């Protein structure tokens, strides 16, 4: 596509070069620029893209996009310099246009919330696939088409950058995909990554304090989440959550409320609970149905009713949706059980917020036979205010806690753990073991038959960031290694 065609509907000023040059891509990372790309100059947390303009041109950039008008006069380059009011908005638009606006060819569901985005997105994907529809799910755990992970080259973010997202959506269209299910993170929304995705349904799950330092304040975090309402044609909202209710009251759009309480369009009532099964009754203006959900715990019921409501609002019969619910499975790293021969219940979960940790511990507390043991920490350079709260939640349920590391980044992990421990009850038993693998092994080695171990915070993740170094690390692999060692010692 010629630069002139790309820019003709976008407010801009062009200096130098030719607007007839062919543009093939959008890139904001100079090292990743390929021949034919436009290079987007933006300021990151640690660096300014302006420093890398020469590298981008050397790598084949055919134009430089800026949002500081002063740079129009200061930059003298061999390629066009394009000023736009907002480079992030242009990056979204440009990537979508270069890929022929692929989202327009599918129905798009975007999900936001502090907790539950990944689980709900996978539940919706599974239900749609069970109803014989082709669906792509894009989010924290990766990219899945009809439940099968697709290995593509992209930066792993909860909400993908437009330069990757629209290429992937174009691939999805070519493979006959009819529905797109996306996780809409607060940062993704604030950075305009979904501005050109033609979102049919925006799903609001909940809001709790998280990412406050990223956004600057809790109000800015809320405002970022609310952007999804302006981008969506229709809303599905958690009627049990005050923030979601407020979003619904402010939005003059078609909307449907779900929840476990009253004053909702889709109400899920728990009739019986046992083992790993919940028997529920769905009440809605589209029908009533008694069915089973293959999980226990209030947060799983909330996630299930969110998915059911969304698929119903897409036009599928309640009867057919509920018949498929008993085949739902949790995504990787979400209360995932690890089989072993020690008689210990071992679970790995991604819970890294106060609300998520509470929900998981409440669920495990219903089935724990003996002691409940928790291995966790909090991330460095992130949301320090939540550490004492997570400590208080863990201490309420845990008999023993092992404080360890969870991406401490530039912070001292001992100080992070001290802030967590400040929330413990005076009688709480705990130990600090900074090597996460060693902490997991110690928890397993010292656990007795009938104990339950929760390893929280990282879930599906396969790396750990310590200082400025990212190392390979998996809770799953650590558990397998620890079990192997402990079983070997038992034999000897």
UniProtKB/TrEMBL annotation:
UniProt-annotated binding residues for UDP-N-acetyl-alpha-D-muramoyl-L-alanyl-D-glutamate: 158-159, 185, 193
Function: Catalyzes the addition of meso-diaminopimelic acid to the nucleotide precursor UDP-N-acetylmuramoyl-L-alanyl-D-glutamate (UMAG) in the biosynthesis of bacterial cell-wall peptidoglycan.
Domain of life: Bacteria
Known catalytic reactions: UDP-N-acetyl-alpha-D-muramoyl-L-alanyl-D-glutamate + meso-2,6-diaminopimelate + ATP = UDP-N-acetyl-alpha-D-muramoyl-L-alanyl-gamma-D-glutamyl-meso-2,6-diaminopimelate + ADP + phosphate + H(+)
NCBIfam families noted in UniProt: murE, PRK00139.1-4
Modified residues (N6-carboxylysine): 225
Location of the Mur ligase central domain: 111-310
SUPFAM superfamilies linked: MurD-like peptide ligases, catalytic domain, MurD-like peptide ligases, peptide-binding domain, MurE/MurF N-terminal domain
Pfam families, sorted: Mur_ligase, Mur_ligase_C, Mur_ligase_M
Subcellular localization: Cytoplasm
Family, per entry: Belongs to the MurCDEF family. MurE subfamily.
GO molecular function, one term: UDP-N-acetylmuramoylalanyl-D-glutamate-2,6-diaminopimelate ligase activity
The enzyme's E.C. designation: 6.3.2.13
Keyword tags: ATP-binding, Cell cycle, Cell division, Cell shape, Cell wall biogenesis/degradation, Cytoplasm, Ligase, Magnesium, Nucleotide-binding, Peptidoglycan synthesis
Entry annotated with the keyword Magnesium: yes
Annotated meso-2,6-diaminopimelate binding sites: 382, 406-409, 457, 461
Cofactor: Mg(2+)
InterPro entries from the UniProt entry: Folylpolyglutamate_synth_CS, Mur-like_cat_sf, Mur_ligase_C, Mur_ligase_C_dom_sf, Mur_ligase_cen, Mur_ligase_N, MurE/MurF_N, UDP-N-AcMur-Glu-dNH2Pim_ligase
Keyword Nucleotide-binding tagged: yes
Species lineage: Bacteria, Bacillati, Bacillota, Bacilli, Bacillales
PROSITE patterns reported for this sequence: FOLYLPOLYGLU_SYNT_1 (PS01011)
PTM notes: Carboxylation is probably crucial for Mg(2+) binding and, consequently, for the gamma-phosphate positioning of ATP.
Protein name: UDP-N-acetylmuramoyl-L-alanyl-D-glutamate--2,6-diaminopimelate ligase
Residue stretches making up the Mur ligase N-terminal catalytic domain: 30-91
Motif (Meso-diaminopimelate recognition motif): 406-409
């Amino acid at each position: 596509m010629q630069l002139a065609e790309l820019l003709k509907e976008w407010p801009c000023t062009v200096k130098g070069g030719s607007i007839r040059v062919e543009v093939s891509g959008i890139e904001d990372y100079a090292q990743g620029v390929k021949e034919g790309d436009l290079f987007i100059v933006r300021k990151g947390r640690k660096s300014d893209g302006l420093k890398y303009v020469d590298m981008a041109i050397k790598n084949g950039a055919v134009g430089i996009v800026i949002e500081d008008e002063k740079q129009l006069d200061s930059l003298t380059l061999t390629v066009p310099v394009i000023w736009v009011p907002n480079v992030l908005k242009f990056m979204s638009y440009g990537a979508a246009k270069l890929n022929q606006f692929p989202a327009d060819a599918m129905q798009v569901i975007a999900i936001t919330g502090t907790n539950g985005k990944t689980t709900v997105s996978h539940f919706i994907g599974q239900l749609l696939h069970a109803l014989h529809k082709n669906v792509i799910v894009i989010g924290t755990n990766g990219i899945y088409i009809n439940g099968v992970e697709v290995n593509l080259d992209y930066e792993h973010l909860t909400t993908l950058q437009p330069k990757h997202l629209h290429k992937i959506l174009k691939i999805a269209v070519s493979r006959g995909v009819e529905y797109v299910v996306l996780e809409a993170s607060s940062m993704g929304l604030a950075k305009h990554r979904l501005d050109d995705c033609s979102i049919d349904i925006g799903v609001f799950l909940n809001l709790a304090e998280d990412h406050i330092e990223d956004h600057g304040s809790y109000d800015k975090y809320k405002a970022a989440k609310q952007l999804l309402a302006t981008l969506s044609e229709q809303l599905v909202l958690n009627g049990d959550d005050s923030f979601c209710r407020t979003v619904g009251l402010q939005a003059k759009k078609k909307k449907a409320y779900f929840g476990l309480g009253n004053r909702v369009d889709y109400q899920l009532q728990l009739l019986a609970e046992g083992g790993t099964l919940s028997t529920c009754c769905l009440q809605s203006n589209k029908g009533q149905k008694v069915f089973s959900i293959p999980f226990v715990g209030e947060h799983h019921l909330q996630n299930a009713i969110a998915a059911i409501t969304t698929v119903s609002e897409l036009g599928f019969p309640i009867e057919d949706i509920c018949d498929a619910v008993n085949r739902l499975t949790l995504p990787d790293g979400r209360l995932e059980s690890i089989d072993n021969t020690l008689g210990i219940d071992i679970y790995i979960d991604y819970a890294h917020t106060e609300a998520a940790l509470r929900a998981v511990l409440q669920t495990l507390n219903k089935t724990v036979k003996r002691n409940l043991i928790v291995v966790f920490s909090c991330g460095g350079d992130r949301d320090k205010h939540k550490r004492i709260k997570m400590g208080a939640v863990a201490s309420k349920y845990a008999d023993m806690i092992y404080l360890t590391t969870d991406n401490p980044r530039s912070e001292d992990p001992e100080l992070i753990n001290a802030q967590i421990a400040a929330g413990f009850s005076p009688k709480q038993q705990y130990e600090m073991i900074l090597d996460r693998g060693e902490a997991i092994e110690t928890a397993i080695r010292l656990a007795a038959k009938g104990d339950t171990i929760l390893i929280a915070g990282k879930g599906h993740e396969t790396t750990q960031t310590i200082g400025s170094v990212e190392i390979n690390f998996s809770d799953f692999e650590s558990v397998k290694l620890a079990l192997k060692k402990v079983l070997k010692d038992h034999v000897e």
